[in-house]
Design goal:
Elements lengths: L18 H10 L8 E4 L3 E5 L3 H11 L12 E4 L9 H16 L3 E3 L6 H8 L7 E4 L13 E4 L2 H10 L2 E4 L2 E8 L8 H12 L7 E6 L8 H10 L7 E3 L4 H8 L19 E6 L6 E3 L7 E3 L6 E2 L2 E5 L6 H14 L7 E5 L3 H10 L1 H8 L2 E2 L20 E4 L15 E4 L2 H10 L1 E2 L8
Parallel strand pairs: 2-3, 2-5, 3-4, 5-6, 8-9, 8-11, 9-10, 15-16, 15-18, 16-17, 18-19
Antiparallel strand pairs: 1-7, 12-13, 14-20
Helix pairs in contact: 2-5, 6-7, 9-11, 9-12
Length: 435
């Protein structure tokens, strides 16, 4: 098991500031500390086709007859939750969001362009020091690039549309100090699931997870995005990484906009400290129906699966598919009776998979390739599992009904573990070869 130091409550007697406190102080125009209520102006606010229509309803109640948004240049709309199979009602909601964006010159990512979080990161719109909010809980993803990023509700988005501001309680911060490096067969998804196993679904409730330590340098940006994304599964308000050469190189390829990295003070005050040896983490598996119902992947009794889902904002990037495809090819392909669904996180990812030949390789193995977007993850578009089916997914949530059918069971794992399940026909290690 990983080597962990006991969490240590530190007395609030020092004057230093955490990364969260510094970013929220700038956004509020005054110094704020954990526990303060800050009235902030976000640098970017994102809405999806699943949250924008309700926000517009709230806006109409707040300011009847005038739906003009404040600071439209700071807004991004992503139509990523619905698709052509979502039904006419969903498509009409999507059309309403699209029309509002066009009318008010709001940056729009349309259907099949990809997942909003991935698109914002790819574009370089997520940058160090920014306050970024999104009406989708996994907006915490942007913390990977040294931003304070958090999810908000549709009513909060309506408030941003109304006045360009929102209020936040400044969170306390948990210091997560990483040491060592991941084993070859282990991914950041395993670390995220292990943290869920350690803390539970609410163990970091309304706190920031601030990652630091020598192990951070061993994590690429894809790894960091996964950990920031899944911080919310521990109840965290945000998951933030420090700025380093990995961050600089990532941004250099995506934007020439100036930014200001944020570094925590040496004497910053943390509510607790966790030290984690990355090299001691082993592949993990979340069992139905909770993200924190996690065990070592090799400890589960063999269980056949019907569907393997490769995609989402925690498992739909090029690196994820490279890892999964290697396992599938080396393992001899997909077991009989198993359905493998591939949903790239963005059109850019899909195009790279196509250019590299990986898309053709997945198709040759029998995988189904679907359009970029949220796909099956939230159960509003993409493939919906049948009642009684067992699914293993690279997604971030597995509660009942998450993929559109409460009678299905969802396991969560890394791309490697998911691909191995496709090869073996199930999860667990008691079965040899294909089933």
């Amino acid at each position: 098991m990983p080597t962990l130091s006991p969490s240590t409550l530190m007395e609030n007697t020092v004057n230093g500031l955490t990364i969260s406190e510094k970013i929220l102080s700038r956004a509020a125009g005054m110094q704020v500390r954990a526990g303060d209520i800050a009235i902030c102006t976000p640098d970017l606010a994102m809405g999806t086709d699943g949250s924008i229509p309700m926000a517009l309803d709230y806006l109409e109640r707040m300011r009847p007859g005038d739906s003009t948004p404040s600071l439209p240049q700071r807004l991004v709309f992503a139509l990523d939750h619905y698709g052509q199979i979502s039904g006419q009602k969903a498509l009409s909601l999507q059309a309403r969001a699209r029309a509002y964006a066009v009318e008010h010159n709001i940056h729009l990512y349309d259907e099949a362009e990809g997942i909003g979080h991935q698109l914002i990161l790819e574009s370089g719109a997520a940058r160090p020091g920014l306050l970024m909010v999104g009406a989708d809980s996994h907006s915490t993803s942007y913390g990977a690039v040294n931003a304070f990023a958090t999810g908000i509700g549709s009513s909060d988005l309506a408030g941003v549309l109304l006045c360009g501001q929102l209020w936040l309680k400044v969170p306390e911060t948990i210091s997560v100090i990483l040491h060592g490096a991941l084993r070859a067969e282990v991914s950041a998804k395993d670390v995220a699931l292990f943290l869920a196993r350690l803390y539970g679904a609410d163990g970091a409730s309304y706190r920031t997870l601030e990652f630091s330590g020598p192990g951070v340098a061993q994590l690429d940006m894809d790894d960091r995005i996964v950990l920031s994304n899944m911080s919310v599964e521990l109840g965290a308000k945000a998951g933030i990484f420090p700025f380093d050469e990995v961050t600089r190189s990532w941004l250099q390829e995506r934007t020439d906009v100036q930014y200001d990295p944020v570094i925590a003070d040496d004497n910053a005050c943390y509510s607790s400290v966790l030290e984690l040896d990355l090299g001691a983490v082993v592949p993990q598996l979340a069992l139905p129906h909770r993200v924190d119902n996690v065990i070592d992947a090799d400890q589960v009794p063999y269980t056949a699966v019907d569907m393997v889902y490769l995609g989402t904002c925690t498992g739909g990037r090029v690196k994820d598919y490279q890892e999964a495809l290697t396992v599938l090819q080396e393992g001899g392909g997909i077991a009989k009776g198993v359905r493998v669904v591939v949903t790239p996180a963005s059109e850019r990812v899909r195009a790279e998979l196509d250019r590299s030949g990986m898309l053709a390789a997945f198709s040759a193995l029998g995988a189904e390739i679907q359009a970029p977007g949220c796909g099956s993850c939230c159960g509003t578009c993409g493939t919906i599992p049948a009642s009684g089916e067992k699914v293993i997914s690279t997604a971030n949530r597995n509660f009942k009904g998450r993929m559109g059918n409460a009678a299905a069971s969802i396991y969560l794992a890394s791309p490697r573990v998911c691909a191995m399940a496709a090869v073996r026909g199930g999860v667990g290690t008691k079965s040899e070869g294909k089933q």
